[in-house]
Amino acid sequence: MVDRSIGRQIFRVFNAVLFILYGVICLVPVAQVLAISLSSSPAVSAGLVLLRPVNFTLRSYEFILKNSAFWQAMRVSGLRVLLGVSFSMIMIVLASYPLSKYKEQFRGRSVVIWIFIFAMLFSGGLIPTYMIVRFTGLLNSIWALVLPPAVQI
User: Fold this and answer.
1) CA gyration radius for the chain?
2) Would you tell me how many other CB atoms lie within 10 Å of the CB of residue 39?
């Protein structure tokens, strides 16, 4: 049975207004960045751009698309995503399969779960991760971006 009381309807309207307001608040910075990217440099430097482009131009996009560093960064990002998702999924499946068993089948299940929870709450931090990457010889390689997040749960 669906509750159609006045209080429930007010609650639904309030939630709808709240989520629409939240959505607009989240989209305004994106619209401003887009307007800045489509505006001329003098207008941006003068602070004239708010939510609409001033002196519309595509020069920013021409500069980026002609820059080889941009395409190199896109290649590295795509490779990082493909490798990262693959390795993370492998690690997640390998860790979750034994944890899906009953206590009778895997007696140390609760201890392992608490170890995972502790590791999630209290990670080593940036400096220990850097030291591990450095001492394993992964510096300046794509694996330094893929392997540490894959093994940190």
Assistant:
1) 25
2) 21
Whether the predicted pLDDT of 1 surpasses 80: no
Nearest to 115 by CA among 136, 133, 95: 95
Q: How far apart are CA 93 and CA 84, in angstroms?
A: 14
| Token couple for 20 | 């629409």
pLDDT averaged over every residue in the chain: 91
Which amino acid is located at 62 in the chain?
E
| This prediction's pTM | 0.68
Q: At what angle do helices 68-99 and 109-121 cross, to 10 degrees?
A: 150
Cα 66 to chain centroid, rounded:
27
| CB distance 49 to 41 below 8 Å | no
Residues near 151 by beta carbon (within 8 Å), at least 6 away in sequence: 91
d(CA 5, CA 27): 33
